[in-house]
User: What shape does this take?
Amino acid sequence: MVSRPASDEDVYLRNDVQIAAKILVVGHFAVGKTTFIGTMSEIPPLRTEETMTQAAAHVDDLHGVRGKTTTTVAMDFGRLTLSDRLVLYLFGTPGQQRFVQVWEDMTRGALGALVLVDPERLKESFDVIDLVEQYGLPYAISVNHFDGTPVRPEEELREALDLLPETPVVTCDARDEKSSANALITLVRYLQDRAR
Assistant: This one.
């Protein structure tokens, strides 16, 4: 028997599951979306990162960002099999305002969004949350704690982000598989509860 080479579709898609769920991983510039998808994906993630240039220095605000040298220019993509019946396809959106037009296409067919938030740059999350709400996506907030970031009480975060009482709020470290998985599980459970 002659085996055929694996196509990109074979690597990224699974045809043997009953439920395929499209989940967006969103957030402002440099909040950890690419890292999160890379941590959670069971396949090599598809990334569209480019090296940041001096030309972007006046456009992309690096205040409060350490060691960032690349940025997503289209999307990130990963896959996570939760069971024989359910696979999550994770789509990471670019965080800069100039890429907002990409959102409309990416929201089509999405069941919900995990909004990553930097606790030291909460104001930058407002536009992202507004977009998620504008497209009618249910969402959960995941506060991405980097080294040394302060832990804020949940009520303080809820008030600062003006969240509804039912909106789930969890913490994670996008580099850590266990805490990132917990954030995704929180979103999936919230989506399931809404569907009942």
The first helix runs from residue 8 to 12. The two ends are 47 Å apart (CA to CA).
